[in-house]
């Protein structure tokens, strides 16, 4: 009887500890995971610049005076001249121009990549058609034993021509794919987002 009481008492104490530990948790695990995930997005979304992706076509804003000059023209500037000439020497552009400048290079890169991808697809289809045609002609030639005996010389010439065409088209596809990869790399260095490069 004593053992049963001790076992029961132990179970009650353990259950109480579990309830206390679960109640001590300040927020549910799902909420904690969401907050961690949200923090990762804000940290990952911060744009980091280096020499490869530093924009060269956009105006770079400089905070403060570029140079401190105390010439007679700057001592008493006219109100019109002061409003037309900013302190840092960089002329501000209209907001609509900034928006078009930021989207135009990306759209231009996207169009270049799409055009090159179209060339790769076209060359790949041409190569595939040539290979299928070669396989069909080879199957027809080797299927007929009489044809193999009568036309082996002409088949050798045609076979060599088809293999040369296939090699040329394969080289053209490889060159087009290399040009596409180079174009994507240039776009990456120009700062084009990954989703526009694909």
Notes on the structure:
This protein has 198 residues and is mostly helical. It has a domain at 95-198. Helix content is 74%, strand content 0%. It is built from eight helices and no strands. It has helices at 2-24, 29-45, 72-75, 79-84, 95-143, 145-150, 152-189, 194-197. Helix 5 (95-143) packs antiparallel against helix 7. The longest helix has 49 residues, at 95-143. The radius of gyration is 36 Å and the shape is flat. The termini are far apart.
Based on CA atoms alone, the radius of gyration comes out at: 36 Å
Approximately how much beta-strand content do the residues carry? Answer: under 5%
How would you characterize the largest beta sheet? none
**Tally the helices: what do you get?**
8
Would you tell me the overall average pLDDT?
75
Show the helix and strand layout.
Layout (H helix, E strand, L loop, with lengths): L1 H23 L4 H17 L26 H4 L3 H6 L10 H49 L1 H6 L1 H38 L4 H4 L1
Helix pairs in contact: 5-7
């Amino acid at each position: 009887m004593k053992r049963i009481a001790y076992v029961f008492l132990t179970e009650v104490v353990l259950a109480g500890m579990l309830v206390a530990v679960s109640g001590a948790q300040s927020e549910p695990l799902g909420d904690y995971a969401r907050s961690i995930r949200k923090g990762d997005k804000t940290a990952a979304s911060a744009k980091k610049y280096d020499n490869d992706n530093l924009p060269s076509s956009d105006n770079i804003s400089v905070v403060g005076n570029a140079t401190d000059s105390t010439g007679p023209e700057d001592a008493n500037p006219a109100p019109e001249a002061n409003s037309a000439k900013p302190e840092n020497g960089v002329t501000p552009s209209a907001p609509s121009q900034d928006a078009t400048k930021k989207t135009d290079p990306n759209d231009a890169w996207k169009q270049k990549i799409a055009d090159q991808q179209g060339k790769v697809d076209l060359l790949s289809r041409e190569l595939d058609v040539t290979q299928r045609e070669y396989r069909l002609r080879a199957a027809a030639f080797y299927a007929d034993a009489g044809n193999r005996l009568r036309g082996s010389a002409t088949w050798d010439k045609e076979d060599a021509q088809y293999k040369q065409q296939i090699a040329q088209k394969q080289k053209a596809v490889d060159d087009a794919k290399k040009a596409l990869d180079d174009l994507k790399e240039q776009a990456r260095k120009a700062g084009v987002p990954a989703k526009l490069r694909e």
